[in-house]
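ARCHIVE CARD
Drawer: 12
Card no.: 0347
Subject: one protein chain, sequence and derived structure
Cross-reference: see card 0346
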Amino acid sequence: MSAMAMLQQLRHILVTDENGGLRKGTTMRRPHLLISAAWLLQGIAWFLPVVTSIGGGKIDPITGWQAFLMASSAAWPGGLDSSPWYVMILTILSVVTTLFFIVGSPWVVSRGTRSQRRASAWAAATAFLVNSHWYVRLTHDGWVSDLGIGYFLWWCSFILLAIGLFDLAGRNDAAEFTHGQATPLPR
């Protein structure tokens, strides 16, 4: 079953009553569907393999929660002492972006203003770019040879969250800005 089919099935479950009819006032709008899908991908990624081989040799897969704990150790004294400074910064940023996702995104969706949602959307898009460093840095020539499906679901959850938050914040920002401006007087 494709991801889109799963999302459509989830939407059907969420908006239909026990007789298969639509519930009044419960249709899920596109931004909420995208954000829910992002949260679902993030949750699933915690239990799927993130790393499947190191240095070309197969290992017991490292799951998402294990990878998060390993990345968190970079912030502890002696965590990544042998690594270059930028690796430590990128690793800590990955941990921070994940914490932002888990703690910040539900708050922003439920209580955030439009400007907070827009800022959070930009933060999620930036997190997507920052977290691409694992794919770029850890290629076949690097320490990790194969990234698992958990990494890609985790990584894509950030861009889905960003799209959903941009959509939730509103797409007519320029129209709102000009609408609120005073009309210039003719000369």
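Annotation on reverse: The helical segments are 3-15, 30-45, 64-72, 85-111, 114-131, 133-137, 149-169, 173-179. The chain has a mean pLDDT of 78.
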